[in-house]
Design a protein that fits this description.
The protein is of the alpha+beta class. Helix content is 28%, strand content 21%. The chain contains 5 helices and 6 strands. The chain has helices at residues 55-63, 82-89, 107-111, 121-134, 151-163, and strands at 17-26, 29-39, 70-75, 78-79, 92-95, 169-172. The strands form 2 sheets. Strands 2-1-3-4 form a 4-stranded antiparallel beta sheet, with helices on one face. Strands 5-6 form a two-stranded parallel sheet. β1 (17-26) and β2 (29-39) form a beta hairpin. α4 crosses α5 (151-163). The longest helix has 14 residues, at 121-134.
Length: 173
Amino acid sequence: MSAAPQTRHAPDLPPVIEIRGLAKSFGANKVLDGVDLALTRGESLVVIGGSGSGKSVLLRLVLGLESPDRGEVLLHGAPADARLRARFMQDFGMLFQSGALFDSLPVWRNVGFRLLRQMPAAKARERAIASLSRVGLGPEVTDRMPADLSGGMRKRVALARAIATDPAVLFFD
């Protein structure tokens, strides 16, 4: 997969995420080769490709879960070192392909998982219910377990979790 550089960002503001010359291979399988892109605040980017074309790998490289063979990821104009990446990770939401809900936690605790680190449980539950409402689910699902939900409801719970912290950056895998 490769992408052409985007230069729509304002010259005085660095992009929120910038990728320069990113490359990643797994053995002889070259997944990414020279990917360049820049995303500013408020922009959206959709990466479309077939299975195995590098979409998830690109995301994992941005998040620091994989290391590139070459190239760099910049966050707010600075190289994504461990300190900067840790700060960036506090303000992003992630919707995983499979939803990745915790089977042993009720819906509200799944949605409020990150919130519970920042606030009392009662407030996290309230925010979780509000996030569920934003994705079309009512309070009647709050105490249900993921296994008791339809597939579509599980996907909406996962989306509610991704938006529960009102992240500045939202990734969909």
